[in-house]
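[#protein-structures] MJ: dropping Hydrogenase formation protein HypD here for a structure pass
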Amino acid sequence: MSAVAQARRARDAAREIVTSYRGPRLRIMEVCGTHTHEIFRLGLRALLPPGIELISGPGCPVCVTPVSFIDEACYLARECGVTLCTFGDLLRVPGTAGSLADARSQGARVEIVYTPLDAVAYAAAHPAEEVVFLSVGFETTTPASALAIKKAAAQALTNFSLLAANKTMDAAYLAMRDSCDAYLYPGHVCAITGARVPRALTSRGISGVVAGFTASELLTALAVILRRSSAAPFFVNCYPRVVTEEGSPAARQLLETYFTPVDAEWRGLGVLPQSGLVPAPAYAEFDARRRYTIPPQEGRTNPACRCGDILRGACTPADCPLYGKTCTPEHPVGACMVSREGTCAAWYQYRGTSAASSGKEDLHG
Ligand code: SF4
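AK: finished. structure tokens for Hydrogenase formation protein HypD:
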């Protein structure tokens, strides 16, 4: 049998396990924005039997970044006259008194960059400007911010710093443990941390599997959860072609060298101990919060927005009175509608498609 035929047979077997499941009710939480999007795009929700609920948790870095961070960035741009360098998604996240896009339209200097190193290059090319990079992301993207600090230090740049809201996922796994029966752990994050991190959670009663991103990988991961759900707390690495037990020591070394853990606020989850990363003391000159005096920010959301509840798995976008009405991807009211990986944005993109039937050829081809 060819490798393609073998893979197809495995996928079909996994799909049969999923669709024929008639066991106890199960809540499965994905904590990866790419999983959220791919599950919709592939139409996997439409395959789930009654009693299996897929919950989108705090897996989108833009979504979990609190409003106060946007307010801090707006303060730096408006009151301190710095040039902000940011990924495009953050531009449209509403802050208490408007978004960064609003600030830019009012004259603030805000540059879109594609990598943290672009921000370093911008600072080097514009020595008369104070440049602050808005650094958000989980273990997958934070190493690139570490490289930015490394390069800025090597170039002895004195006009570059980071406003950091980077986060690590392990505290979120613990915080959300009562919201689900099993996790679909994020493949990209686990490629850095290693499978050992989620595996260790079984000793605390937390179950889950690491999943990849293809239809076959996601179906296999779901099938494993359904098969193992009645057993003791379990962990299975269903993405072994990318995730090793040890992960990436080189990436973790970058994080440990250039960042230090701090308590951090997550939208909807509150402050989680030691879940944030800011520039390490040895690189304090690259920490925007040390370089500038930023007063405490209000961090106020639209009171009708339910992003916090959605990120906790307590409701779905359909429960938000603004969903699809005043809140759309063109005019987002909350962070979950901004990024392509946000839960509200995914629901909106695949609305009216029977829980996203587009892409089903991936399951049947
Ligand atoms: S639909 Fe918009 S306002 Fe409602 S929870 Fe989602 S992002 Fe917030």
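MJ: nice. Residues 116 and 145 are 6 Å apart (CA to CA).
AK: one more thing. The pocket of iron/sulfur cluster is lined by residues 305-307, 310, 317, 320, 322-323, 327, 332-334, 336-337, 344 (CB under 6 Å).
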